[in-house]
């Protein structure tokens, strides 16, 4: 299945008004409303052969010129049969930084969603074990947010550091 065939199937299924499709330097990005993200991801997996979730990441758009949303969550998908790649973006805003978990579609979403939660504070509802993966549970901030100070807030002094002999 080619990318054009996939886009045609998406247009038939979801229509123009729900999805915004753009192309840049050979990559295709689909922007989806939050209310339809799981439906779109499920359709891409089951009906369009995107069987591999490559990555989930986020972008903080705070202070971006003309930005209307605070965070964008990006899903990088691939078809291992056709070598087609696709990016799906969904926006979330405060105070409700939450979207549905994709762990029911791809088991690999488990750790990827935990990383986004740990670094940005975006929750994935229905996730089987949403807790920090890179930072200690006691850490109260989200270091990849734009409002987090570059030098931190003094957290390094509050957490013990294991030496090589202790580990």
Describe the structure.
By secondary structure, the protein is α/β, with parallel strands linked by helices. It has a single domain, classed as NADH:ubiquinone oxidoreductase Nqo5 subunit (Beta Polymerase, domain 2). It is globular and about 55 Å long.
Can you count the helices? 3
CATH class: Alpha Beta
Q: Could you tell me the radius of gyration in angstroms?
A: 18 Å
- Helix percentage: 10-25%
Whole-number average pLDDT? 90
Total discrete domains: 1
Widest sheet: strand ordering: 1-2-5-4-3
**Residue ranges: pLDDT <50 for 5 or more in a row?**
none
- CATH topology group: Beta Polymerase, domain 2
Q: Strand-residue fraction?
A: 15-25%
Distance between the termini: 49 Å
User: In total, how many beta strands?
Assistant: 7
The arrangement of helices and strands along the chain is: HEEHEEEEHE
Main beta-sheet annotation: 5 strands, mixed
Coarse morphology: globular
CATH superfamily: NADH:ubiquinone oxidoreductase Nqo5 subunit
CATH architectural name? 2-Layer Sandwich
Q: Look at the helices and sheets and give the structural class.
A: alpha/beta
